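Researcher: Batch entry, complex prediction.
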Amino acid sequence: MSTGVDPQELPPGLALAWGLPAKTSKLGRTPSQSVEQVVEAAVELADADGFAALSMPKLAKKLGLTANAIYRYVRSRDELLVLVAETGWGPAPDLVSGADRWRTAATTWTRSMIDRCDVHPWLVDLPVRGAPVTPNLLRWTEVILESLTGAGLSPKEAIQCALLLDVYARRTADMRRDLRQSNAGSVKSTTVQDFLLPLLHEHGYPLVAALMTSNEYSDDIDDNDVTFGLTLILDGIDGLLSGNKPHHTTDPAG
Amino acid sequence: MSTGVDPQELPPGLALAWGLPAKTSKLGRTPSQSVEQVVEAAVELADADGFAALSMPKLAKKLGLTANAIYRYVRSRDELLVLVAETGWGPAPDLVSGADRWRTAATTWTRSMIDRCDVHPWLVDLPVRGAPVTPNLLRWTEVILESLTGAGLSPKEAIQCALLLDVYARRTADMRRDLRQSNAGSVKSTTVQDFLLPLLHEHGYPLVAALMTSNEYSDDIDDNDVTFGLTLILDGIDGLLSGNKPHHTTDPAG
DNA sequence: TCGCGTTTGTGTAAGGTACACACGAATAAA
DNA sequence: TTTATTCGTGTGTACCTTACACAAACGCGA
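Model: Structure tokens for the complex:
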């Protein structure tokens, strides 16, 4: 079991995420909510109105409490966000095992991340404080590490590659969401293009201007686009595995 | 020149970033500041105390004004942030030209981004609303597109690859900063490890646990690490260019 | 069984900060 | 003088968080 570490000194959410409080005393007034219910309500709130709407007063109102009462369940808003992230990402996917199936595994993993961001678009907005420390998020890390090290990568290489896949998934989901709503601030907007295109031609941005006019600058991200970038990364990993990198071993500039 | 688009309807910062106000009338009270001075002060504020300290009241106090007065120079906080980003990233690097030098160019570009994040660590914290629309940021985009299309990539491929490099640079800088400060919340903390390690072993996270104990999970990101990931991406691009992708053309799972 | 202290949850109120706006005073050119 | 523009004061709203008092529920002793 766990050592005698004081939960108070741990980072926000760590103790709660691992179910550590272990509320033994059944004394006192029974809580109207549980931590799980609070987090669940927060998730619903973010699902409905976006990450910006996830405030303590709004959450309290949704639960029929005052803003203050929330702090009996979580110590701070940061702690709540950690738990919300843990719940939002949910359990990690099951990946196929076997050294020759690492491409399938990595693809599944990355697409699962993007899928989760489609389910909970606010996942992209959650601040990332550092390396994951909660069960679900650690499981996501564990399974991709298992696939990559199983394929022959060193632990350190595996982390680097996992990070690359993670970043790629998040950013892809982010852009896809931005383009999907396509509000007035988007580059797709005719007003923006009318303003920007003359300036681009005048100040020497031929490539950006061409992309903008051909609408390739802000088109939707479809499945093929995801596959494209993913293939590129996987090919890079593959080169790393087979050791026959096209040009060099350490110097990327050449 | 520009068309008759109403600057009011443009996204925040767009008009100001392109120097559009063109304040012709010299009537009325002379402003005590200029937009450039306001933005510069905001940059200094963020440099000194981090992105969180970049608030309108604090900025006003630094300039000897009230919070309200700032809104005479920028329409909203979002507009200020757009201009701050434009100034913070600064001018794009000059890249070597020539189809056979694209690796050098891409490497320079990526390392320049990371360098900028070392100069202004808060750049990573700035929210990204969508595709860049300001002169400096568009120049960053233009130069990398020039290198990649010059090497033989299609415009759409070039954008995808540029995005990948961009994401890699930002995330690398982000992690490096997080590890550099290495505060109590970090995984490096002994308290966290004392709490987490038994749980990891108990619940079946052998790989993460091994990495954490060997301290490879939270080590600093040195130059070799940056080179590693960059090489991987560039090798992926190289495979795209030469058309001899190791395994497949479209399906990354295979 | 009853009462009491203890423990715990909740509400009220308040402090502190931030973004943003309405209005009038101050300023300086035309 | 007229007019346009900046600036300060004051206001309003919203948010995170804490301090304090009250209310409820349980265990224990009488």
